Each structure stands twice: as structure tokens, then as C-alpha cells.
């Protein structure tokens, strides 16, 4: 059967000195380390048959796509379905034991971790990410595509495609900065999901958000 591979790439490290959850806020761009991470990811796929490149509209994702565009001679298409998930705590500090999570005024938002009640429902994230992946697969049929997105949407897509429950412990996501979660299709059937971290040698990065 015809093989098509869709690589879901998480963006590189973001410049975030205030360590807030930046979500969909504008103006958050890659740090110097994040730019190196993007180049490392592009190098990892330099010899692959990538024919289609698409990104979340957010700046950090488009910046992560740029080394691929330059290396492969491809245009960067934008797909709003690849955007970061919506979150009530956007713009706030939400580290364990500090910031907004210590303020009782926000506790009502945490009432249901299964939906989750503080953000975009997992089922809606999964639905739009499947649409984005299927669109990229059609554009690259018989070849490979790279979709630049964000940690939670990529992880939610992976859980949905593996037939697993969507609610989870965020600390257990396997989706590091500039990592590749690759979906291998034989014809229209998903045959394999692989994961790699081509920028791991640069460090885990810092800051908050995805």
C-alpha cells in the first residue's frame, strides 16, 4: 500500500522570563535555544521525503517551521486547527504551589479534570487535530508532511489515535520540546506511531506553556 507519514512537531523553547502559561497570547517567540531546537529537528528530517509543511498560526510554531521551509524549499501553510488549546489560566503563573493555583478565587475552575473544566475540552482538541492531520496526509499522500503544533494538542491527538482515554496527568506527556510524534499510514490505515526527540542533546528547555 501507499505509505504516508505525518510528523507532528512540537515547537522549540519559548522566551518566557515571567514563566507564565502563555497559551494563545501573541508575542511569544522562540528563545535562542528554541531556534537551535528547530534547526536540530529540521536536520533530523533533512533526508526524508517531506513534501508538505504546515504550522499553527502562533508565532513560536511558525518560527519552528522556518528551518524546514529553508532546508526543503517549501512554503509554510497555516492551519488554525493546529493551534494551542484554550485555557482559563492563560497569562497567569500556574506552577505547583504558586501563582493562580494558590488563589481560592480560581479553584472553581478546577472542578472537573476529565473535561477539563479549565480549558478547551479534550474531545474538541482531538477532533480538530484529526482534521489537521488528515488534511496534511491528503496533501502529502505517498510522501511525508510536517505539522508544527503544541504539546497538549499533539498529545491529545496521539491518545485519540491510540484509542486511549483523553484525560491524563500532564506530567506524563511524552512530547518534549521540538519532539516528533510521527503517524505512519499504509493507505488510509494507521500502521504505526513513533516518537523521537532530535533536539534532546540541547537540553530540556525552560519556561512554562506549550
Helices, strands, pairings?
Layout: E1 3-10, H1 32-44, E2 50-55, H2 59-72, E3 77-78, H3 122-139, E4 144-149, H4 151-161, E5 180-186, E6 189-196
Parallel strand pairs: 1-4, 2-3, 2-4
Antiparallel strand pairs: 1-5, 5-6
Helix pairs in contact: 1-2, 3-4
Q: Please count the beta strands (DSSP E, at least 2 residues each).
A: 6
Main sheet characteristics = 6 strands, mixed
Distance between termini? 36 Å
CATH class assignment: Alpha Beta
H and E string: EHEHEHEHEE
Low-confidence stretches: none
CATH structural architecture: 3-Layer(aba) Sandwich
Give Rg in angstroms: 17 Å
Which fold name corresponds to the CATH topology? Rossmann fold
In spatial order, strands of the major sheet run: 3-2-4-1-5-6
Structural class: alpha/beta
Which assembly state applies to the chains in this document?
A: single chain
Average pLDDT reading = 95
How many helices?
4
- Large-scale geometry: globular
Q: What is the CATH H-level superfamily?
A: Phosphoglycerate mutase-like
- Number of discrete domains: 1
Strand content: 15-25%
Percent helix among the residues? 25-40%
Structure description:
This protein is α/β, with parallel strands linked by helices. The chain has a single domain (about 5-15, about 30-85, about 120-200), classed as Rossmann fold. Helices cover about 25% and strands about 20% of the residues. The protein is built from four helices and six strands, in the order E-H-E-H-E-H-E-H-E-E. A six-stranded mixed β-sheet has the order 3-2-4-1-5-6, sandwiched between helices. Strand 2, helix 2 (about 60-70) and strand 3 form a beta-alpha-beta unit. Helix 1 (about 30-45) packs across helix 2 (about 60-70) and helix 3 packs across helix 4 (about 150-160). The longest helix is centred in the middle third of the chain and has 18 residues, at about 120-140. The chain is globular. It starts with a strand and ends in a 14-residue tail after the last strand. The model has no long low-confidence stretch (mean pLDDT about 95). InterPro entries: His_Pase_superF_clade-1, His_PPase_superfam, PGM_Phosphatase. It comes from Catellatospora methionotrophica. Pfam families: His_Phos_1. This is Broad specificity phosphatase PhoE. One of its GO terms (molecular function) is phosphatase activity.
Amino acid at each position: 500500500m501507499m505509505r504516508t507519514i505525518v510528523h507532528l512537531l512540537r515547537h522549540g523553547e519559548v522566551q518566557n522570563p515571567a514563566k507564565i502559561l502563555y497559551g494563545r497570547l501573541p508575542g511569544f517567540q522562540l528563545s535562542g535555544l528554541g531556534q537551535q531546537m528547530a534547526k536540530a529537528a529540521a536536520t533530523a528530517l533533512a533526508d526524508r521525503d517531506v513534501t508538505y509543511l504546515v504550522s499553527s498560526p502562533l508565532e513560536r510554531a511558525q518560527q519552528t517551521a522556518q528551518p524546514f521551509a529553508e532546508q526543503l524549499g517549501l512554503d509554510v501553510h497555516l492551519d488554525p486547527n493546529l493551534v494551542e488549546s484554550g485555557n482559563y489560566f492563560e497569562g497567569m503563573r500556574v506552577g505547583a504551589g504558586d501563582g493562580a493555583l494558590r488563589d481560592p478565587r480560581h479553584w472553581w475552575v478546577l472542578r472537573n479534570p476529565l473535561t477539563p473544566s479549565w480549558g478547551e475540552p479534550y474531545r474538541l482538541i482531538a477532533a480538530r487535530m484529526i482534521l489537521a492531520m488528515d488534511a496534511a496526509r491528503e496533501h502529502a499522500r505517498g510522501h511525508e508532511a510536517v505539522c508544527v503544533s503544541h504539546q497538549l494538542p499533539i498529545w491529545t491527538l496521539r491518545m485519540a489515535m491510540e484509542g486511549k482515554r483523553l484525560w491524563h496527568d500532564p506530567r506524563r506527556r511524552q512530547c518534549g520540546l521540538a519532539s516528533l510524534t510521527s503517524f505512519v499510514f499504509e493507505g488510509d490505515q494507521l500502521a504505526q506511531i513513533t516518537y523521537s526527540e532530535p533536539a534532546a542533546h540541547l537540553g530540556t528547555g525552560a519556561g512554562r506553556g506549550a
